[in-house]
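// run 5 | inverse folding | seed 20
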């Protein structure tokens, strides 16, 4: 189905590592610029996964319309191909209503795919292989990938089982993961990165994890299990769910669980920063520089219609 997209749609992208405050900044910019937000988070698409993903609440949205949150069942994988399709449709709808599309999230692969900076490989899911690989640890999957495609292994998150399994699935079908090809984007995207000094970001991560535990992260994982989400599937739904599951299974103490999860989230944040800093087109701001961001955006849109085509 056609989305009605034409070349030159102007959009805003707000990106950066976890716990840096992207969601609140995107809401404030949307209020100032008459915008709506498209979430670019590979886990906030799933219903019932609220605390572990840091999903924005209705109160925090402050009346700003959000798209691509709670659109999929956690029982089934929501692919990057589906994300691009759904985000394209949301952006087209937002522009037609005379508003500014603001893409906000920390999943760099989703953002690059949306901007056509990378094209997902045309390989259908292989349920037999996925079931086989799901029994392996991330370390074992990464070693398999390293043996079969060293170039892809150098570019992947070695702890992300979903990405590792998908890469091995593609290799099984094609012999190797194809080089990431680019094609012309339908969007002219102004990309804003949010960053913090190293110590401040680490403090935010620790504080947010403490809040999540107080809010019921462990109880959320228990509820998902009771609703029929298998332990195998939970292991694929991100490090918060994986580490919490290990704690529930008696693999680690609560103190060790807290320490390990804090460290794992910090390492993940560093990998996000590495991904985004490869994009020299991102302009970086501190979280408190919202006025400067607004000025930057206003200048960007002033050369044409406030939202829509050039």
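// decoded
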């Amino acid at each position: 189905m056609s989305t009605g997209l034409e070349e030159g749609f102007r959009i805003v992208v707000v990106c950066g590592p976890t716990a840096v405050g992207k969601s609140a900044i995107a809401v404030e910019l949307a209020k100032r610029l008459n915008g709506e937000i498209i979430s670019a988070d590979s886990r906030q698409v799933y219903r019932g996964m609220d605390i572990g993903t840091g999903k924005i609440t209705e109160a925090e949205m402050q009346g700003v319309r959000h798209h691509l949150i709670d659109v999929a069942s956690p029982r089934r994988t929501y692919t990057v191909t589906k994300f691009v399709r759904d985000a394209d449709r949301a952006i087209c709808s937002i522009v037609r209503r005379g508003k500014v599309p603001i893409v906000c999230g920390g999943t760099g692969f989703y953002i690059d795919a949306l901007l056509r900076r990378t094209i997902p490989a045309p390989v259908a899911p292989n349920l037999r292989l996925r079931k086989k690989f799901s029994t392996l640890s991330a370390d074992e999957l990464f070693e398999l990938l390293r043996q079969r495609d060293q170039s892809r292994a150098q570019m992947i998150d070695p702890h992300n089982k979903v990405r590792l399994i998908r890469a091995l699935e593609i290799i099984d079908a094609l012999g190797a993961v194809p080089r990431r090809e680019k094609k012309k984007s339908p969007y002219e995207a102004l990309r804003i990165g949010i960053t913090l000094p190293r110590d401040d970001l680490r403090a935010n991560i620790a504080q947010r994890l403490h809040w999540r535990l107080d809010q019921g992260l462990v109880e959320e994982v228990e509820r998902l299990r009771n609703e029929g989400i298998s332990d195998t599937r939970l292991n694929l739904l991100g490090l918060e769910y994986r580490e919490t599951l290990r704690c529930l299974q008696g693999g680690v103490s609560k103190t060790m669980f807290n320490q390990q999860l804090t460290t794992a989230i910090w390492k993940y944040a560093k990998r996000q920063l590495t991904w985004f800093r490869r994009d020299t087109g991102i302009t970086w701001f501190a979280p408190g520089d919202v006025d400067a961001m607004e000025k930057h955006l206003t200048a960007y849109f002033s050369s044409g219609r406030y939202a829509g085509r050039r």
